[in-house]
Design a protein that fits this description.
Largest sheet: none
Number of domains: 1
Helix content: 55-70%
Distance between the termini: 52 Å
Structural class: mainly alpha
CATH superfamily: DhaL domain
Bound molecules: adenosine-5'-diphosphate, magnesium ion
Number of helices: 10
Mean pLDDT: 88
Strand content: under 5%
CATH topology: Serine Threonine Protein Phosphatase 5, Tetratricopeptide repeat
Low-confidence stretches: 1-9, 246-260
Length: 260
């Protein structure tokens, strides 16, 4: 499904868009490096204290490989970033964060449009959910991504907002999602080993996802020569559960009897 008239591996538009995506990746790498210690601190409270290092290593390598690409289109940049994250982040989070990124890049066949950005976001979230088997309320990155992705989609498809405003609302929703991870109990990932002792801690993966989205917003505003819009979101959008799923899997939210 390539662009019509594309004979040389990319159009001028795609090269401009590709350069903007590389700039976004570089901004993410810088921000994650700045937040490395904070992310490590969060992960030391409920995990193994490697999230700052994992993400900083992965995104620094991603920025370097993205910079080395020759006039890439956005899809090539994203695919390369995902593969680099897979290789450099390693462990369980490499395939989760990087592999899902590679998969979602397939949605950028025709460059970055409001429609393809929504498709990218939805596919990324879907893949992270599938690979990690996590849902909203499990105290993971999914708690930040779900409200962000659904708010982005609704802002564009239902509310007809320009993509930059939709992205600002998505960032706002992600911020609420990060706050939501604090009072809940981890049910996936290393933090779940702590059982109820994970309550009261902010999830590191949700936090780094918020930083990534904030940098995406800042670089998108830059590329469009606009101010970062004031999100003023009234409510993040989380879809209703299917009735069957809502019927529950039995593990509910009741306190444990064995005091773990
Ligand atoms: P690791 O857990 O292998 O040490 P990191 O510390 O880099 O990897 O990443 C931890 C983050 O990964 C968590 O804060 C959480 O957001 C996310 N995560 C862990 N397990 C899952 C899962 N099964 N599904 C979704 N996200 C997960
Ligand atoms: Mg960790």
């Amino acid at each position: 499904m390539s662009r019509e008239g594309r004979t040389d591996g990319g159009t001028a538009d795609e090269a401009t868009e590709g350069a903007a995506v590389v700039a976004a990746v570089e901004a993410v790498a810088d921000r994650i490096e700045d937040e490395r210690d904070h992310l490590t601190e969060l992960d030391s409270a409920i995990g193994d204290a490697d999230h700052g290092g994992n993400m900083a290593r992965g995104w620094a390598a991603a920025a370097e490989t993205a910079r080395d690409l020759d006039d890439p289109d956005p899809q090539t940049v994203c695919r390369t970033v995902g593969k680099t994250l897979m290789a450099e982040v390693g462990g369980a989070s490499g395939p989760l964060f990087g592999g899902s990124f590679v998969f979602a890049s397939a949605e950028l066949d025709d460059g970055v449009t409001a429609e393809s950005a929504v498709a990218f976001a939805e596919t990324y979230l879907q893949k992270v959910e599938d690979r990690g088997d996590a849902r909203v309320g499990d105290q993971t990155v999914v708690d930040a991504l779900t409200p962000a992705v659904h708010t982005f989609k609704k802002s564009i498809e239902t509310d007809g907002l320009p993509p930059l405003e939709a992205l600002a609302k998505a960032v706002d929703a992600a911020e609420r999602g990060v706050a939501f991870t604090v009072p809940i109990r981890a049910k996936k990932g290393r933090a779940s080993y702590l059982g109820w002792r994970s309550v009261g801690h902010q999830d590191p993966g949700a936090t780094s996802a918020l930083y990534i989205l904030e940098e995406l917003l800042a670089t998108a505003a830059d590329a469009l020569d606009s101010e970062v819009p004031d999100a003023d979101a009234t409510s993040p959008t989380i879809p209703d559960e299917e009735p069957d799923e809502a019927a529950g899997d039995g593990d509910g939210d009741a306190p444990p009897e064995d005091g773990d």
